[in-house]
Amino acid sequence: MTIRTAEEALQRYKEKMGDELGSTFHLCLQELYWVSSTWDIHETLFHDSNTVELINSANGGVSFAIQTVFFEYVQLGVCRLTDPATQRKSKNLTVRALPDLVIEDLKLEIDQLVSESLKATEAARDWRNRKISHSDFHLKASQAKPLKSTSRIATTEAIARIHRVLQPIALHYCETNLILPELGDNNAMSFLLHLFAGQQKKEADLEAVKSRDYKTLENRFPDWLKRHGSMGTRYDLDRILKVPREH
Question: What is the pTM of this model?
Answer without folding.
Answer: 0.88
